[in-house]
């Protein structure tokens, strides 16, 4: 008998249990060590350890975290300095280092706080009785938290996309907390599938889909009125749980992806190989890890060869985005010209692009790398991705017209389809046996027909 406890964390939070993402842990792990307080002289705040205990210190630290999280979200870790943070809170750079010695310490503190609060939302959602109610509750609570930020009631939480921007010593701490949070998300769905070893991969894939589509709302929800956020949460939950298929549409078990990805049949040029290697490293290790040396080493080429084909790393990253846009755009165009219903075309383009993620020329670049780009380049690339996302709208509308797609908010549904395709690049992190042959069934199918169907 398969032991479901090895796959599913208890969806209900344990009582009186310290959490590795608690606020006390954040403070301890990100602040410089100092001498212990002199208890015999409580009024003599002469060293850093005693200063930590003051309310003023705690309040200023929270202001720094609030400000830094918003700056990291807007400008990325690479584009934000301690001086930027200090200027926003009225402190010099040296004064900011009194609270956080290095920018990496501040980044980690912001991430740990975001993970801790998100874990709390998952624990609250876990109180619901069924997997569908728990998933719906998590989506509702997450969007409600975004609404509280939008109206100024709560500070902005740092996006978890920047975890890979941390150095190795810090990223291990952040990923340990993130992995714990993901296990809680997976626990929301634990009794949705039979306790069978064959369902282990399916459970991990659906938990990743739930997390990706829910957290992804932070990137697009600000285009809506704040008063509409509760309705947006209902729409998002409906699409995640019930999919987009019309009543007579069935999942297509087979799809000729090679016809939609003709580039896979062509030999890879040296420049294309550099783009692939750079994309892999950017996805795995973020901007910091994708150095010219590492990119060249992955291809068994010299650093000189890198600069022979590339002006600099920023230009190469920009080219990686352009490569991704070209693959998505060309596949969309090929599908759009095929006969069939809107549902047929949506399934075909989704399967093909997820297949590409696991192909010899894949993967596509994670959209979470946006924060590593210079601001002007980031805005241009985000605009390009937004245009590609709207191309899915046409297929959804066609499907609603021919009855193959159920009536729904096509703008939000298009964002979810695009988000699912991009999130597939992370699927192997949670499903070790995911590959080009099974990724469509594991990941595309629950998006199209419903998370728990």
UniProtKB/TrEMBL annotation:
HTH tetR-type domain residues: 58-118, 268-328
Residue spans of biased composition, Basic and acidic residues class: 1-13
Tell me where the transmembrane regions lie: none
Decide whether keyword Ion transport is in the record.
Answer: no
Keyword entries, A-Z: DNA-binding, Plasmid, Transcription, Transcription regulation
Report residue spans for region: Disordered: 1-43
| PROSITE patterns for the chain | HTH_TETR_2
DNA-binding region(s) in UniProt: 81-100, 291-310
Q: Which GO terms describe its molecular function?
A: DNA-binding transcription factor activity; transcription cis-regulatory region binding
Q: Carries keyword Magnesium? A: no
Q: Cite the record's Polar residues compositional bias ranges.
A: 16-32
Q: What is this protein called?
A: Transcriptional regulator, TetR family
Alphabetized PANTHER family for the sequence = HTH-TYPE TRANSCRIPTIONAL REGULATOR BETI (PTHR30055:SF234), HTH-TYPE TRANSCRIPTIONAL REGULATOR RUTR (PTHR30055)
One Pfam short name: TetR_C_24
């Amino acid at each position: 008998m398969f032991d479901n406890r090895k796959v599913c964390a208890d969806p209900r939070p344990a009582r009186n249990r310290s959490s590795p993402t608690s606020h006390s842990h954040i403070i301890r792990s990100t602040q410089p060590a100092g001498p212990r307080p002199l208890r015999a002289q409580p009024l003599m705040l002469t060293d850093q350890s005693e200063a930590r205990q003051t309310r003023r210190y705690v309040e200023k630290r929270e202001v720094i975290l609030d400000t830094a999280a918003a700056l990291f979200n807007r400008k990325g870790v690479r584009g934000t300095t301690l001086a930027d943070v200090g200027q926003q809170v009225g402190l010099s750079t040296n004064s900011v280092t009194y609270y956080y010695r290095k920018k990496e310490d501040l980044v980690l503190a912001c991430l740990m706080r975001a993970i801790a609060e998100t874990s709390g939302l998952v624990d609250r959602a876990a109180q619901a009785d069924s997997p569908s109610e728990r998933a719906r509750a998590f989506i509702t609570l997450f969007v409600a938290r975004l609404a509280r930020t939008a109206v100024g009631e709560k500070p902005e939480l740092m996006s978890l996309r920047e975890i890979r921007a941390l150095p190795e010593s810090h990223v291990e701490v952040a990923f340990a907390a993130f992995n714990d949070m993901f296990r809680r998300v997976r626990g929301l769905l634990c009794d949705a599938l039979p306790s069978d070893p064959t369902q282990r991969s399916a459970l991990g894939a659906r938990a990743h889909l739930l997390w990706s589509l829910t957290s992804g709302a932070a990137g697009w929800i600000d285009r809506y009125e704040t008063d509409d956020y509760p309705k947006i949460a209902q729409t998002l939950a409906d699409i995640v749980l019930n999919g987009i298929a019309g009543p007579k549409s069935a999942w297509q078990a087979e799809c000729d992806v090679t016809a939609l990805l003709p580039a896979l049949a062509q030999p890879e040029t040296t420049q294309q190989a550099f783009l692939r290697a750079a994309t892999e490293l950017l996805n795995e290790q973020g901007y910091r890890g994708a150095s010219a040396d590492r990119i060249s080493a992955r291809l068994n080429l010299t650093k000189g060869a890198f600069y022979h084909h590339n002006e600099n790393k920023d230009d190469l990253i920009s080219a990686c985005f352009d490569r991704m846009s070209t693959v998505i755009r060309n596949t969309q165009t090929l599908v759009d010209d095929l006969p069939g219903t809107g549902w047929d075309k949506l399934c075909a383009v989704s399967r093909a692009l997820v297949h590409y993620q696991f192909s010899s020329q894949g993967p596509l670049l994670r959209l979470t790398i946006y924060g590593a780009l210079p601001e002007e380049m980031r805005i241009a690339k985000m605009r390009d991705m937004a245009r590609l996302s709207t191309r899915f709208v046409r297929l959804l509308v066609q499907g609603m017209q021919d009855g193959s797609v159920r009536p729904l908010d096509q703008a939000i549904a298009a964002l979810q389809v695009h988000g699912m395709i991009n999130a597939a690049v992370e699927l192997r992190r949670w499903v070790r046996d995911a590959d080009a042959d099974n990724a469509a069934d594991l990941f595309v199918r629950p998006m199209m027909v419903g998370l728990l169907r």
